[in-house]
Amino acid sequence: MNAQKFIICVxxxxxxxxxxxxxxxxxxxxDAFTDPPNMRENLNFPLxxxxxxxxxxxxxxxxxxxxxxxxxxxxxxxxxxLIAFLTTVPMALINYAVYSHAPLSEYITDxxxxxxxxxxxxxxxxxxxxxxMGNRGDESSGDRGDESSGDx
Length: 152
Hints:
- By secondary structure, the chain is mainly alpha-helical.
- The chain contains 5 helices and no strands.
- The protein has one domain (3-133).
- Helix 1 packs across helix 2.
């Protein structure tokens, strides 16, 4: 993936994750989740944004390392779900085991949200990435745009 396409992927990933997090935590679930007792009154948004940016950089960097030539939607969905199971699901279980401020159901609900969120972001990333590889359609046998198969 070239630098321009990588930057586009990171920006799109950042906007999608930051936007869906805002919708989920501030609008849809604001009254449903239990605030930790030591939560800051004024959140440090620059630090939150930096954390999301770092996640997006790594998320976008790793994606092309495991492309297997499958349907781009399936590939992106699988990638996003695997990343969710690598990052947010284990942390939810660990946080539940360590902190006692919220019931397990809140951690499970949050994990399901992140699985769906990262699955969708993975699909979008796969479609952006596929455009950079030259195989905009999935009609080929998955050879990543290699059209050098011999003509008879």
